[in-house]
Amino acid sequence: MASESKIDVVLFVPEETQLVYLAEGAANIVYIFPPRYPFTKPTLLEEYSSTTPPPSIIEDDDDGEQDLNVFDNKLLRLRKDLPTTLTVAIAQGQWERWIKPLFKDDQLVHQQLVRLGPGKVIKRLNEELRVKDAQISAPIPGKILVRPTKRQGVYLADDEYGLLITDMSPCQGNTEVIEFKPKWLSQSPSAPLNSKRCRQCAIIACRNQELATKNPPEELLKEYCPLDLVSGIEKDVLYVTRILLAPERKLANVDRFARWIFNSPLLTRLRDLQSELDKLGPLKADPKDWKYRVAMTLRDCTMFVRFPEDREDDKEMIEARIGDLDVKSVGKGPYWKETEEMLIREGWYTGTERRTTARQKPITCRIGRTFDTRDCI
């Protein structure tokens, strides 16, 4: 495992940086640097004269200098205070060692270790999160609530570091970014031989039955088969594209996205790595094996595809990167195995599960579907 001492940290986020909450997942929160400068103090520009550095330079605590342009086109990702999250420096060391060598530089959401201003940055951001949580519990008129209710109550870890990551949000103009999770692009090695669903379709079918039987029923997850993404069959690629982009299915976007999927070497590379790094599956694989944990990481990554404003530029200017690649922890091993055992025991792989909903839905997985996707386009 990579240690913090082996990582050379150069960049820093000063205490005065005014960060703006963007989004969060289960383990991290992402912040935006305000345009032009990460500072809002009006005295910053006034303090500089012909004898001092320009405003694109600021001194750090160790009398070094840093060009503020390093924050251009970057987001700041900070980890939450959870027992399952590693320190940022250790997680970055694993990414550098095990993930980065697997892909070309332009295929990854780049991430770079950055030191945080001592103490006050995390403290201030946690205070802001608590205010958001209070607004969720007791809404304040005129306030925009941006923190999901299910995320409240968990705050940032008092970590010395954060990560600068590539900003894959839409740029100025009419560019569009499509974000999705490719998931398991090949069948689980420990799935039954008579399976009618792949691993991901089995999981979705199970979870959707749980959601449908709740009182009141909750919104179902999208039922798309990741195997269609790498099928190389145009009608199946178009079918899965329409599901991924629903409910806003602009035909132009569907067509562009489907064309990218059909020709993407990145998706096939991802599939091949998932298979090469895990040949046993969750029932037999050893969670202490870094290759298995990297394979499971690649099965839970996020794909960002940014399309240029002019569709005539698609061939040369589409930007596709993979993110959310913190290597999974050894502690996830029992959960992966228990989930696999449940899917097999309850018949979700084979389509023999006990139905608790009134209507039997057809199997949508590429392995066991009995309908022609052309009829659904």
From TrEMBL:
PANTHER family: INOSITOL POLYPHOSPHATE KINASE 1, INOSITOL-PENTAKISPHOSPHATE 2-KINASE. GO terms for biological process: inositol phosphate biosynthetic process. This is Inositol-pentakisphosphate 2-kinase. Phosphorylates Ins(1,3,4,5,6)P5 at position 2 to form Ins(1,2,3,4,5,6)P6 (InsP6 or phytate). Has kinase activity and phosphorylates inositol-1,3,4,5,6-pentakisphosphate (Ins(1,3,4,5,6)P5) to produce 1,2,3,4,5,6-hexakisphosphate (InsP6), also known as phytate. GO terms for cellular component: nucleus. It catalyses: 1D-myo-inositol 1,3,4,5,6-pentakisphosphate + ATP = 1D-myo-inositol hexakisphosphate + ADP + H(+). It comes from the Eukaryota. Pfam families: Ins_P5_2-kin (PF06090). The keyword Kinase applies. Belongs to the IPK1 type 1 family. GO terms for molecular function: ATP binding; inositol-1,3,4,5,6-pentakisphosphate 2-kinase activity. It is an enzyme of class 2 (transferase). The EXKPK motif is conserved in inositol-pentakisphosphate 2-kinases of both family 1 and 2. Its EC number is 2.7.1.158. Transmembrane segments: none annotated. Keywords: ATP-binding, Kinase, Nucleotide-binding, Transferase. It comes from Phialocephala subalpina.
